[in-house]
Specification:
heterodimer, A: alpha/beta, Rossmann fold, 10 helices, about 25% helix, B: nine-stranded mixed beta sheet, two-stranded antiparallel ribbon, 7 helices, globular, binds flavin-adenine dinucleotide, binds adenosine monophosphate
């Protein structure tokens, strides 16, 4: 299991990965080893030493910033030494930069954006979305000694980090990673701060591509004003230049958990849901009864968003 | 500068569909369109090529229907299109086997830059490009939200979680996977669409590319055991009735939730 850190912090997905690894271990997949790869790897060793983890490997890297080719070389070397049956990592931007190449070059089994894993007689059987998450595909990996799986953030239960471990062995592994980098890190830039902090809002009206045009978005912004909601948007509206980056909700935007999240014209892609699924009350309006947003919403209406918005303005008055 | 742009024609299941007993789709054939991410990678390629007097070659692995997607790319500025298909390639659907097919094309074309989409809208592996870079031993960056030429190098941005970006430099030959929003893809003019009909779409089979279909399929990273419907149990409680009634219920729920 590959833990992920950025800016000196263990990323939350790492705790989910440990949870998934421990659950698989209980199903008979074997002992759990957590690999910490990075210049500051050592500092996270205690945090990943939780119940169910048997070994912690600390692998220092020459550069402080994540570098995809260095990571690929390091993980390939660990696979060679340890011959794990499963390598778990998050379906994250960092992993997407090295894991597919690792699997392709090593001849390993591979699946990304995995939402469930079971350990059966013939090894791992996993689930992932198909046809834009409308269906679930089940995959297996016949004949593979090592299978690399990227797990969807938020889809797996967290490991119980509050329980102290009986004590995993911690081993430092020095690999020769000098000269492996093939990109040059320039800088890490923080997201620009905008006019609002949508994460602070209690009542969010989130608008998606279903609004159709910039003019119609403006109309809905007036409805938001009228009902006292803060406007948030899905990614495509920012990309079209209709809304500020600071209004974006999702994996590459803000994570929000307001008291009420109204989702209008949003399909519910995994990367959007990652930023709003912990909202306390989610109400979705979408004209497509099969939209995935209805899976995470508490209440839903299969309807035209403009018609409902006009009526809402009236019923709030 | 020669730029190779692998593009995918993606399926969308907008209408009704049901699953057949064999796990395939029965009703409501999917509709097909050019992958959204590939519109952005193509536009990025065309812009770089226009600035450097280059050539943009689009390639897609798929049956005859994908020619439509390739023609759409030609209308948006690609110079040449290749469709790869043939006996034995129908099963090449996972990112690792697709990457091995695309690697054969890349070896033949020897581009300075390969621009893939960051992901495909239907399968969402987000993996084919980086797997391809691995097989070709090319440096790469995934999920790129800006590209700038900088002498012999490219300065690119990688879009991270939470809206932060990493700025990094990479030297061609290399591969980037492109995120949506990196540019504003042009809409083809009628004239361009007409001209696209005249441009060649080459078809290459396993023999032309010296590919052994059995080897391609054996390189797949996984095997699909079946397709299933998603469980609906956890879904939303549906509000039904006239729009005014639905809105009244929403208003009630909102006010209650805010008061809590
Ligand atoms: C690495 C990565 C990071 C990403 N990060 C983010 C992120 O942070 N945030 C984000 O949002 N996305 C992100 N995305 C994009 C994400 O995958 C989706 O493409 C995006 O969320 C889709 O936005 P949408 O739901 O508004 O649009 P669509 O998927 O196009 O959905 C529009 C919806 O509107 C409905 N609709 C249309 N007309 C009406 C009407 N009149 N009334 C009611 N409903 C209507 C349709 O039925 C449809 O469901 C990311 C993608 C990648 C690969
Ligand atoms: N059949 C295909 N033919 C050509 N390129 C493809 C194909 N499938 C995927 N790709 C490329 O890989 C990218 C990512 O797809 P995926 O890994 O399926 O999410 C796409 O945006 C394309 O650039």
């Amino acid at each position: 299991m590959l833990a992920e850190a950025r800016r000196g912090r263990l990323r939350p997905v790492s705790v989910e990965l440990i949870g998934a690894a421990c659950a698989l271990s209980e199903e008979g997949a074997g002992p759990v080893t957590v690999a910490l790869i990075g210049a500051d790897a050592e500092t996270h060793a205690a945090a990943v030493d939780v119940v169910g983890v048997e070994h912690v490997l600390v692998v220092p890297t020459p550069q402080p910033a994540f570098e995809a080719h260095v990571m690929q070389t390091a993980v390939a070397a660990l696979i060679e030494r340890r011959a794990p049956s499963l390598v778990l990592a998050g379906h994250t931007i960092d992993s997407l930069g090295f894991a597919p190449a690792l699997a392709a070059c090593g001849g390993h089994g591979f699946a990304s954006d995995v939402t469930a894993i079971h350990w059966g007689e013939h090894g791992a059987v996993v689930q992932r979305g198909a046809y834009g998450d409308r269906l679930i595909a089940e995959l297996d990996f016949p004949g593979r000694q090592t299978v690399v799986l990227l797990l969807r953030p938020g889809a797996f239960a967290l490991a119980a980090t509050d329980r102290a471990s009986p004590g995993a062995t911690v081993e430092r592994i020095e690999l020769d990673l000098a000269g492996c980098a093939r990109t040059e890190h320039v800088e890490l830039r923080d997201p620009p701060t905008g006019d609002v902090d949508i994460a602070k809002a209690d009542f969010v009206l989130a608008l998606g591509r279903g609004v159709g045009t910039a003019e119609q978005l403006e109309r809905l912004e007036r409805v938001a004003d009228a009902i006292g909601a803060t406007v948030a948007v899905s990614g495509p509206l920012v990309e079209a230049g209709w809304a500020e980056r600071s209004r974006k909700v999702g994996q590459s935007g803000n994570t929000v958990a307001p008291r009420v999240y109204l989702a209008f014209g949003i399909s519910g892609a995994a990367q959007h849901v990652a930023g709003m699924s912990r909202s306390r009350m989610i109400i979705a309006v979408n004209s497509d009864p099969g939209a995935r947003i209805f899976d995470v919403a508490h209440y839903g209406a299969v309807a035209d968003l403009f018609v409902i918005a006009a009526e809402l303005e009236r019923s709030f008055a | 500068m020669k730029i190779l742009v692998p593009v995918k024609q993606v399926a969308s299941l907008d209408g009704d569909f049901t699953l057949a007993d064999d796990g395939g789709l029965r009703e409501g054939e999917p509709t097909w369109r050019l992958n959204e991410w590939d519109e952005f990678s193509l536009e990025a390629a065309v812009q770089l090529s226009e600035a450097a007097d280059g050539e943009v070659v689009v390639v897609s692995v798929g049956p005859e229907r994908v020619e439509e997607a390739l023609r759409a790319c030609l209308a948006r500025g690609a110079d040449r299109a290749i469709r790869v298909w043939g006996e034995g390639l129908a099963g090449a659907a996972d990112p690792l086997s697709l990457a091995s097919v695309l690697a054969a094309v890349a070896r033949a074309e020897a581009p300075a830059l390969i621009l893939c989409g960051a992901q495909s809208a239907d399968a969402a592996h987000a993996a084919t490009g980086v797997a391809l870079a691995g097989l070709l031993d090319l440096p790469r960056v995934a999920v790129v939200s800006a590209i700038e030429r900088d002498g012999r190098h490219l300065t690119v941005q990688r879009e991270l979680e939470g809206g932060a970006v990493e700025v990094l430099r990479i030297a061609p030959p290399c591969l980037l996977t492109v995120q949506t929003g990196i540019n504003r893809p042009r809409q083809p003019t009628l004239r361009a669409i007409r001209q696209a009909r005249m441009k060649p779409v080459a078809v290459a089979g396993p023999a032309e590319l010296a590919l052994e279909p059995a080897v391609v399929l054996a390189g797949a990273g996984s095997r699909t055991v079946g397709l299933r419907e998603r469980p609906r149990s956890a879904g939303a409680k549906l509000l039904e009735g006239a729009p005014a009634d639905v809105a009244a219920r929403i208003t009630e729920i909102v006010k209650e939730s805010l008061a809590r």
